[in-house]
Amino acid sequence: MSTQRSTDQQSKRRIRIFDTTLRDGEQAPGASMKPEQKVVIARQLARLGVDVIEPGFAISSPGEFNAIQQISRELHDVEICGFARCMKEDIDAAVAATRDAARRRLHLFISSSQIHLDFQLRKSQDEVIRVLRDMVAYGKQFVDEIEFSPMDASRSSEEFLFRVVESAIEEGATIINIPDTMGYAMPEEFGPLFSRIRHNVRGGDKVVYSTHCHNDLGLAVANSLAAIRHGVTQVEVSVNGVGERAGNCSLEELVMAIQTRGDAIGVETGVNPEHIYETSRLVSRMMHFPIAFNKPIVGRNAFQHESGIHQDGLLKNRNTYEIMDPEAMGIPRSMIVLGKHSGRHAIKHRIAEYGIQLADEQLDDLYTRFKSKADEQKIITDDVLLKLVSESTDSFLEPYTLMDLQVIAGTNRSRIASVTVRRAEDGGEETFAGAGEGPLEAVIHCLRQAIPIEAVFEDLELHSLSTGEDASGEAVVSVMYQGERYRGTAIHRDIILAAARAYVSACNSVLLSGRNSVEPTQNVAAQ
User: Fold this and answer.
1) Which residues belong to any copy of the Pyruvate carboxyltransferase domain (predicted)?
2) What domains appear along the chain, each with residue ranges and CATH number?
C-alpha cells in the first residue's frame, strides 16, 4: 500500500505557479502601489514559493521600472518575468529592468480576436502576424525564454489562433500562454482548446503551455483546472484574485484546489500553504482592497460557523464540515461564530477557551441570556459574551474592563485621548491619557499604559453591520504575544470605542489563556 502511494506521488505532474499580482493584479482600479510596497510583496511571494513573479509593466513609469529592477536584483530563487507589448520600446524597457535577474523571461502579447483587431489594433490578420514575428525574434536575442500570449484567445477564431501560435513558436517562443482575457470561456470548451492547439500547430508539441484566466463569469479557477487536465503545466494567478474587472484566477483557490483534490487530477504545486493567509492579508493591506467575507480560502467566513448543527459536528471532528485545515494555511483558528443559531456546545467551547468552567445551572442561565442578546445583534462578540458570563455568575471575569473613553480630534493638532479602566483583581479604576496622529493611535497608547502586557497590536478590521446614520461597526483586533495571535471583537456605533473594546478583549484573551479555570472575582458593586 505504501509503495503504491509513493508511486502515485512521484507520478504527479508539477504545475508551475506564475504570479501576476504585481502586474495584472495592480491594474485593478484603485490597486496601484508604491514601488517599495511592490518589493515587500515580491519578497513575500518568494517565501510563499511561487515559481515565477511578473513584477510589473516596465514601460509604464520610472517608479515601476525601478521596482522591477530592485526585485530582479534581490530575489534570486524565483524566475522574474518582464512584460511587454509587441513593441520595441516595451521590450527594451522590460529587458533593461530585468537585466540583473538570476533567471528571467520575457512575456510578449498581442491581440488575436477579430473584435480586438478591428477596434483596438486596427490591423489585419497578416499585419498582426508580421508584428508578432518581428517582435518575438527581436526579444529572442536578449533572452532564451520567451512566453507569448495571444490576447483574447478564447474569443478568437481557431484558424487564426493556430496561425498566431505557430508563428510565435517558429520565431523562438518557448512558452505559449492561452489567456481567457475576458473571462468568457466555459471549462468544457476551454480545456480541449489546448489539445487542439497542440495537435494542429507545427511545433505545438515542443513548447510549454500556460493559461491566464479572468473571472468575469466566476469561472477562472474552473477554466484553469480544465486547462491543467489538457496538459497545461503553468497557471497565471494573483493573490486574492485581484486584477482587471472581476480579477484573475485566485492563487489561493487554485493552489488549495490542487492541494485538496490533487490526487483526482494527478498534479501538485511547490507553494507553501502556511504562508497563504499572511500573503493574502499583506496584499489586501497594501492595495487597500478588502477581502469579501465569503471569499474562498481567505475570506472571514471561509472557516467560521454559526449554525448549531455545524458547530456541534466541528467540535466533535473538524472534518465533518471542513475539507481543509485553516491552521495549515496560517489562518487563525476561530471556527465558532456566536449568534442566534448557536447552541450550548458552542458557548461552552468558547468560554472554555478563556479558561472558564461553569456549573450546569450557570450555563443554563448564560444560554438564556445569550439567546436574548443574540436577538438584538447579529454576532455575540467576546466582550459581550464575557459580560453575560459575569451576569450569570455575579462575578468579574474580564481582567480589565474599559469604563470610559474620551477623544479630542482636530484638523491642526494631535489627537488626545483618555481612558478609564477597571481592574477585576481589586475593583480599582484608573485613568490614563495619551496622544497620537490619529484617534485610535491615541486610545491604544492609553490602553497600553493601562494593561501591562507586551502584546503587539498586529491588525484591525472594521466592518459596517448596517447602513444609515445609526450604523454599527464591528471591530476585530489581533495582537501578538510570545509568538501567539489573540483576537478580540466588539460592536458599537462609535467605531473608535468598538476598536478600543476589541483591543481590551484581545489583551484579556492573552491574560486568560494561561488559566485552566477561572476563579471569579466577586462583583464589588453587588456587595
Assistant:
1) 15-277
2) 2-287 (3.20.20.70), 308-395 (no CATH), 400-526 (3.30.160.270)
